[in-house]
Structures are given as C-alpha cells and as structure tokens.
Amino acid sequence: MNPIVVQCKAYDQIRMFILNWKNGILHSSLPPHLVKQSYETELRSQIRYRMPIYRFDDKQCNTLMKIISPVLLHANYINKNYPRSLMQANSQYGGLGITHIYDVMGIEKLKFLLMHIRRHDTTRDLLHISMQQTQVECGSEKLFFDLNHDVYGHFTTPTWNTNLWQYVSSWTITMDSNLHVQIKNLESMMNSLWTSL
Fold first, then answer.
1. What pLDDT score does 93 carry?
2. N or C: at which end does the chain have fewer Cβ atoms within 10 angstroms?
3. Domain range summary for the chain, segments of one domain joined by +
C-alpha cells in the first residue's frame, strides 16, 4: 500500500477522533478545569499513543489544533483571538499549558527512537538503515540530525526519520554523537555483509 495514502488515512482518523472529542465536550456541561483535564487525559493520551508512527508536518498539526483550541478557549471564557503561543505557556506566564500536537508527536518520536536504540532490537536496525539512506542523501559527513532541515531536507526522501529531523531542527535539539557512531558501526556491518555475499 502507498505510504502517502496510509498517512492521509491516519490523518483523517486522528481528525475524526478529535472531532468526536470536540462534539462530546460541546454537548456536555463540564466545568472549565475538567475540559482541560479531558484534553490532557483523554484526547492527548489517545493521540500520544498513535503519534510515534505518523509523519504529520507542522501545518497538519496546526490544522488539528484549530479544532481543539476554540473548545479549550471557550471553556476557559477566553476570547478566540487569544495568542496561540500563550496557550502553550504555563500559568506562570499567563498561559493555559496546552501542549501542541506537533510537540506531542515530536516528543513521542524522540522517545520511540531512543527506546529502540537502547533496546538493540530489530526496529533499531530498520531505523538505522533508514537513517543511513537519509545520511547518504544529505551528502554530508555530519550527522543529518545536526544539519538544518530547511537547507538539506529537500535532498532527502520523506521518511519517518526525516519527519523527526524536521521537528528536531525546528527546535534546535541536538542529538548525541553516539548516534552517529552507531550508524557508522551499522555501515561497517552492512559492508561486511555485502562482501560476504
């Protein structure tokens, strides 16, 4: 099946899940603090569970947040023109402490990657193969996670890793150099495998 079609279906499923949550909230009489709690415990936890495998960009996540934001603002008696950046700030800065879906996805992807690298399992090997391909497409000896996605991203095939790279690059998160060493070790292992064939 075409990966692009799968991602479109996944986006539609997440969107429908959010719309169902929104309709449930709008037809209930929950007080404001329970609406936010519903977002954090029900909606966000369900989305967090699914997000590591998806490749949504920030535009798609912004579209999803446009469904969620009015519900949370209305529940807190806040004008719909309230700055979206303040929604994500904590209460110390006058914000609502709402985590953006793009950040939920990025954090879950980072946790997923680091978990499988630590486990030394088959998924780790598959991720490393994909990372090697992205590294070759970038044409740089520097680990692609350390490169600016806006500059080098158009050279690469869109994959799960490049989506994570886009997130890491947008927040200027630096990856540990051990990741690069592990990729080189995998490269030498693959070279010895090919020469033995």
1. 83
2. C
3. 3-100, 120-196
